[in-house]
Design goal:
The structure holds 2 protein chains of 2 kinds.
Chain A: H1 2-15, H2 18-36, H3 42-55, H4 60-85, H5 94-142, H6 147-164, H7 169-183, E1 186-187, E2 194-195, H8 209-228, H9 246-268, H10 274-289, H11 300-316, H12 318-324, H13 330-341, H14 350-353, H15 355-385, H16 391-410, H17 413-431, H18 437-460, H19 471-501
Antiparallel strand pairs in A: 1-2
Helix pairs in contact in A: 1-15, 2-4, 2-15, 3-4, 3-8, 3-13, 3-16, 4-5, 4-13, 4-15, 5-9, 5-11, 5-12, 5-15, 6-7, 6-18, 6-19, 7-18, 8-16, 8-17, 9-10, 9-11, 10-11, 13-18
Chain B: H1 2-24, H2 38-56, H3 67-106, H4 111-132, H5 141-149, H6 155-161
Helix pairs in contact in B: 1-2, 3-4
The chains are: A mainly alpha, B mainly alpha.
Chain lengths: 502, 162
């Protein structure tokens, strides 16, 4: 408890610095603006703004605070398009459209937006409080992890990813493998041997993380926009004067609390992010409180449930990212990559070696939550204007922003070709129902996975049995098998029972 | 079918990847039991298994993109590649004006509006990013050449801005 309090004191000392406070606000506004762009989900927004934020040359903690603000803002902006346009920005926002859009159509757009802001605020704050309690404990335990345990942890992360994300297990696994294979390009750090560089000097140091992120997310998104482009603009519902009232809050308070808990703990599982959390929360809430069948027609509880869970999961996903160095979702994978760019290795040592970064980030999440609530309740009408930007201007703007961001990293035009190529590849993956989060997760974790495997075998002198040498790794492998086998078993059983009934 | 084509193409790439891992990569000397080649070998074997499963049981039949859309997508990619190629020679402002105008016109904006958008994006983007945020954007070889040919009144200035 004492470490938590002193850590938080350090963190708020960093985050309340006037310049950093200013950055949180800027990040929240910029994130909300880009997140509100129609069809552009939070993850793509963060991907496009990330290189620009990196090139501004701030100190690591300031840059991370800015990024966290953008991340939060983009998550918030995403729900504006879910509610007003019925176009979810990402998988996590699909559940928000179910009750949010009917509310807006019934003339309660203002109420829907303000209620979702409050639900997100409660979910997000709840998750940050739990995060600050859990993270130091977990990181103290994680210090005892050996390289072999890390290998097991990574296997578990990819197993839960494969079983819970995407439509097909094999495709998710293949996506992760593509990411891992991309990560092997470049000079091997242990022996200095170049791998898969084919003599091209631009990729000797490996493909830059930012290039993969902007290519796979930003540029692939752009191609999707071009493909789906409907002539003219999407029809946006107007923001009216209605506002959330005490009766709504009283009706939804237990929903919000329950779904915050669900969201946080689902978010902690490596690989499962906001999309699983909001779906589970909506389903649970529907079972518990949908007595008169109003869910799906604009019920306030149906809107509050996925919103609270969504944001709680975003906080929960930070737990494995900060304490183990293993991100819980696509977006935290991007934040992890951002940490690595500043030469900060997230993981158990981060809390003892770079407390100002770890706690500064956590404190900025508290502030970011409050800032978003304050910014968004009065200004939502302005952000909603972003929805009416016609596609023919939006698409070139995304490309220009992405090019600026990538060019400013090292000023190499070859990188611009690479993001275009990766964008085409990412577009094909999306069209074939691959989800892109595993690819980025594989890419970020590739070096960590390989190095721990090699280190483990160096310790044992080449004996592979070290991988199952102690209870921690064995337990993780058992969990990995369970997380893959259980859904398959349950699916079979459900099918068999259906078969019996017929 | 689309799945099979994609998996087939990926299989060729992965096979090439694994051939390189099994033959070409090797360290002249090493003390660790696992060298630089071991990890790519493991990855390529698992990836080949996954690809064979997809080839055996594909689940996406076609990707449902109309012929005209293919054309528009291809044109967008060509524009992006051209934009990237011209980024340094023409400089940010000129290349962005060209790219913004052509792409927005192609996507359905009127010519006049497209031109206004392109110019606004090029000049506005440069002012915002290069002047205000002090980011590194290419000034353009052509513009620099013009500066050098012009009577060298303020060479220090031109140098500082690039």
């Amino acid at each position: 408890m004492e470490t938590v309090l002193s850590g938080l004191a350090t963190g708020f000392g960093v985050a309340l610095d006037p310049f950093n406070l200013f950055l949180v606000l800027v990040g929240c506004v910029a994130g909300t603006l880009i997140g509100a762009l129609p069809g552009l989900g939070p993850i793509n927004g963060v991907a496009i703004l990330l290189p620009i934020a990196y090139s501004l040359g701030f100190s690591p903690e300031s840059a991370l605070i800015l990024l966290a603000g953008i991340y939060y803002g983009a998550e918030y902006g995403g729900r504006i398009s879910s509610i007003l346009l019925n176009v979810p920005g990402d998988a996590g926002a699909v559940m928000t459209t179910l009750d949010g859009n009917p509310m807006a159509r019934a003339g309660n757009a203002g109420k829907a937006l303000s209620l979702s802001a409050i639900a997100s605020f409660v979910g997000g704050t709840f998750a940050v409080i739990l995060l600050s309690l859990f993270a130091p404990v977990l990181s103290a335990f994680a210090v005892t992890f050996s390289p072999a345990d890390y290998v097991a942890l990574m296997v578990f992360a990819f197993a839960s990813l494969a079983s819970l994300v995407g439509k097909s297990t094999v495709k998710t696994l293949l996506g992760a493998l593509i990411g891992l294979m991309l990560a092997t390009i470049g000079i091997d750090a242990n022996t200095g041997i170049p791998r898969y560089t084919f003599g091209i000097p631009d990729i000797l140091a490996g493909i830059d993380f930012l290039i993969v992120v902007v290519g796979l997310f930003g540029m692939a998104e752009l191609l999707t926009l071009v493909e789906q482009q409907v002539s003219g603009r999407l029809k946006s519902l107007p923001v009216d004067k209605s506002f959330v009232n005490w009766a709504d809050l009283a009706k939804t308070k237990w929903t919000i609390v329950r779904c915050s808990v669900i969201g946080f703990f689902i978010g902690i599982l490596p690989g499962t992010g906001a999309s699983v959390a909001s779906a589970v929360a909506y389903g649970t809430e529907k079972r518990i409180s949908d007595n008169d069948g109003t869910f799906g027609t604009g019920d306030v509880r149906g809107l509050a449930a996925p919103e609270a869970a969504n944001n709680a999961a975003a906080g929960g996903a930070m737990v494995p990212m900060l304490t183990l160095g293993i991100p819980g979702s696509g977006t935290t994978a991007i934040l992890l990559g951002a940490l690595l760019m500043f030469n900060i290795q997230p993981g158990p040592m981060m809390f003892s070696q770079r407390p100002e970064v770890a706690w500064g980030l956590i404190a900025s999440m508290y502030i970011g939550n409050v800032a978003l609530l304050v910014i968004n309740l009065p200004l939502v009408g302005i952000f909603a204007r972003m929805l009416t930007i016609p596609q023919q201007y939006l698409t070139p703007m995304i490309a220009i922003l992405a090019f600026i961001g990538i060019y400013t990293i090292v000023g190499n035009p070859f990188d611009l070709m690479m993001i275009t190529g990766l964008g085409v590849f990412g577009w094909f993956l999306r069209k074939l129902d691959f989800s892109l989060a595993p690819v980025i997760l594989g890419f970020v974790l590739g070096a960590l996975f390989e190095n721990n495997l090699r280190r483990a075998l160096s310790i044992s002198g080449g004996d592979w049995w070290i991988l199952v040498g102690n209870y921690k790794s064995v337990l993780l492998y058992v969990l990995a098998i369970l997380v893959v086998a259980l859904p398959i078993y349950l699916g079979r059983r459900a099918r068999r029972m259906e078969g019996d009934a017929v | 079918m689309a799945d099979r084509i994609f998996a087939g193409a990926m299989l060729i790439v992965t096979l090439a990847y694994s051939v390189i891992a099994f033959t070409a990569i090797s360290a002249p000397f090493q003390y660790d039991p696992l060298g630089p080649e071991s990890w790519p070998r493991i990855l390529s074997i698992v990836a080949i298994i996954c690809l064979l499963i997809i080839l055996w049981k594909p689940d996406t039949d076609e990707i449902g993109v109309a012929g005209q859309t293919w054309f528009r997508l291809a044109a967008t990619v060509v524009l992006l590649l051209a934009y990237g190629q011209l980024y340094e020679p023409l400089g940010f402002i000129l290349s962005t004006i060209l790219f913004g105008t052509i792409l927005s016109a192609m996507l359905g904006a009127g010519i006049l509006r497209a031109v206004i958008f392109g110019i606004a994006a090029g000049i506005g983007g440069y002012l915002l990013c290069a002047v205000l945020l002090d980011l590194n954007l290419p000034q353009g070889d052509i513009i620099e050449a013009l500066f050098e040919n012009a009577p060298a009144e303020q060479p220090a200035n031109a140098e500082g801005a690039s």
